[in-house]
Specification:
Mean pLDDT: 78
Strand order of the largest sheet: 2-3-1-4
Largest sheet: 4 strands, antiparallel
Strand content: 5-15%
Number of strands: 4
């Protein structure tokens, strides 16, 4: 071992860096599996939140208290308002069916007034205030509500779950780094006498660190790929039976960019483990040896 040349096979055998073993690859595999599953869930939530937000951002509802008798007239009038599209009315029967869940047979009473309810979308570029004024000019008793305002709590919850997923990914990456540091320190303690001999014949800390770095990089790569393959299989099984999940998310799926990011995560975890191992080994060599 001379200068900054590549470690020879004899050098690698001297520190036992050829064999893959110990718990490190398995720990990293578990971390890789967990990170990919959580990252996929976070990306899926992001796609669902975006799709849901786009679906309701231009959707509005018109409600007229006790105005179900004028539902047909309100529907036709709303269709003629400049800037509205996809105008639909909620039939009185459907309203009463919904109320029956809470009121029971009382929902069918003619003495119970049922509001007229019409939904519509704003055309691109339409001014909501202008449309609102036109509708109020037609029906002064109407109240107009934006679906996006009503759904803000749900969207906030979805975004909070995205942040939780990101925090969990960071924490798991930190846990994997801690496991690598412990493995590097254990390897240094195991080969302490050999390292002293290498120092005695002129080996530098950089050269010795490179030997440990190589072993941990291989362990991390193997563990990351094994965990990623297991996560990919689990995600494929979930995707195969995702009919119910698709109803909850509005059919949102992982896009091509999402899949690329997920595929890069094992290599990012390997790079992180290698850098952490190198830093830990160099710090320990400079402090203790």
């Amino acid at each position: 071992m001379t200068g900054l040349s590549r470690p020879s096979a004899a050098d690698r055998r001297l520190l036992g860096v050829q064999a893959l073993g110990g718990p490190t690859p398995w720990v990293i595999a578990i971390m890789s599996f967990s990170i990919l599953i959580i990252a996929a869930a976070g990306l899926g939530l992001a796609n669902s939140a975006g799709r849901f937000a786009r679906s309701v951002e231009a959707r509005y509802s018109i409600e007229v208290p006790a105005g179900s008798a004028r539902l047909a007239q309100l529907l036709e009038a709303t269709k003629k308002v400049t800037g509205t599209t996809n105008v639909t009315a909620v039939p009185e029967r459907e309203m009463r069916d919904t109320l029956r869940r809470w009121l029971g047979p009382l929902a069918d009473s003619r003495d119970l007034p049922v509001p007229a309810l019409v939904s519509f979308d704003l055309k691109p570029g339409a001014d909501p205030d202008t449309v609102r004024k036109q509708i109020l000019a037609i029906e002064p008793n109407a109240s107009i509500a934006s679906h996006s305002d009503a759904m803000k709590p749900l969207l906030r919850s979805l975004r909070a779950l995205q942040w939780i997923a990101l925090i969990l990914v960071v924490l798991l990456a930190g846990a994997a780094s801690a496991a690598v540091v412990l493995a590097a320190r254990a390897a240094l303690d195991t080969h302490r006498t050999t390292i002293e001999v290498l120092h005695g014949i002129g080996a530098t800390d950089e050269q010795i660190a490179r030997l440990f770095q190589r072993k941990i990089a291989i362990n991390a790569l193997v563990g990351s790929i094994v965990g990623a393959l297991a996560a990919g299989l689990a995600l494929a099984l979930l995707a195969a039976g995702s009919a119910f999940l698709g109803q909850l998310t509005g059919g949102a799926t992982l896009g091509s960019l999402d899949l690329v990011l997920l595929a890069l995560l094992p290599f990012a975890l390997t790079a992180l483990a290698t850098l952490v191992a190198r830093s830990a080994v160099l710090a320990r060599l400079r402090r203790a040896l």
